[in-house]
Amino acid sequence: MTPERISEKMSSISHTEYDLPHLNNKEHIIDALTNAKDIWNRDRKMIKQDLNKDKFPAYLVDNADRFKDFIA
């Protein structure tokens, strides 16, 4: 998903306290994604999980190519 699309989603779904210019901009979104930070600057760290059937639904694993815009 592109930073622009993420920004659009943030504007449409986030609580108003999170739809702020310093959070909802391309540079911040790219930084958050690149450095595994929470996009809303909450005290959380994102971790990359291996896509396997032990942790994810078989349908997602078997059809990963269909969801490539949403999973890394």
UniProtKB/TrEMBL annotation:
<protein>
    <submittedName>
        <fullName>N-acetylglucosaminyltransferase</fullName>
    </submittedName>
</protein>
<keyword id="KW-0328">Glycosyltransferase</keyword>
<dbReference type="GO" id="GO:0016757">
    <property type="term" value="F:glycosyltransferase activity"/>
</dbReference>
<keyword id="KW-0808">Transferase</keyword>
